[in-house]
Structure formats: C-alpha cells, structure tokens
Amino acid sequence: MLELTLDLLKAKLTVWKGCDLAKTANAVLGEGNPNAKVIFIGEAPGQKEDELRRPFVGAAGQFLNELLASIGLTREDVYISNVVKFRPPGNRDPEPIEKEQCMPWLMLEIALIKPRVIVTLGRHSLGHFFPQKTITETHGKPQKLTDSLTVFPIYHPAAALHNGNLRASLMSDFRALGEFLKNLEVGKIDN
Ligand code: URA
Q: For a tag site, which of 40, 109, 121, 188 has the least CB within 10 Å?
C-alpha cells in the first residue's frame, strides 16, 4: 500500500488544481522536521516564497528565524507551513474560499507530524483553529485544542516588521512560548 509521507504530499500538491490560486502561483508546502513537536503556521506564501517554493524565506521568514533563535530553536527543529499553499496575487489577504480549499493540505501535514504545539502566526492561522477567538485577546496565551494539542497564538512576523509595538509584543510572546515549551519538555504541563 502507498504510504503517505510529506514528500508524497508535496508531489501531489504540486499538480493539484483545486484552488484558483494554483493557476497563477507555485505550490508551497511546509518544510522542516517531520518529527517536530512544534509547528508554526502562517497565512500564505509571499513573492519570495512563491519564487523559491519554500515557506517563510522572505523578510518575514528572516525575522521568524531570529525569533526562533531567541528561544534556542532553528528551522530544522520545527516544521513551518501556511494555511494557504499558493501566493494570493499582490500578497492580498486570502479569501475564505481559498482558505477552505487549501485546508485539507494543512490537516494532512498536521496528521503526519503529530505536533504537541501549533504556533499560529497571525489572525488567518488562528481563525483556522478558533474562528471565534481574536488574536488581540489570545496572543501569547496557550489555547488547548485537544487533550494532546495546544495552539499558541502569536502575531504575524510580517505585521511586526514595521510596527515597534507589535514587534515588542511578538518578542515577549516568543519568550512566553520558550517557557511553555521548556515546561512541556519536563512534563510540567499536562497536555
Ligand atoms: N507570510 C506568510 O504567512 N507565509 C509565508 O510563507 C511568508 C510570509
């Protein structure tokens, strides 16, 4: 029987035409450690991500790398993906239908990796898991999704690039994330 792997998922996504965005953009699946305990999920690829067919490799990705380093992590330790797998034209916000059409790809990535923590970057990603919750209320505070899976909402690094207040908030939320992950490792947190 054919085994479902991230490589197979990527190959299937590359030829998939189930979303209008796939007519104008390249497929960008997530990347990183297939055994990661933590998945970071952004909104949609931008221009650089579309060009290189890799998530978070532009300016926001550079900032994400720095934030990861600030809590002792590298991209190789985690898995990084997006709700929408194709760049919306001109980097506009993804439409609800586009998020819905791409949703099964993200669910398959999560099912394969089986993380303990999902860090949502920005409101589109948070909305995928908790449509009723706002990022203003929840950022930096762990939200239990199931007995074994916690969502940790954080602002999107792109939004914080040019906004000093958001940047400070993002950095402080990352410190809280670092603490949360440390406690998880030694079993202090029951999730
Ligand atoms: N912003 C996102 O949400 N995802 C990327 O991959 C890059 C920028």
A: 188
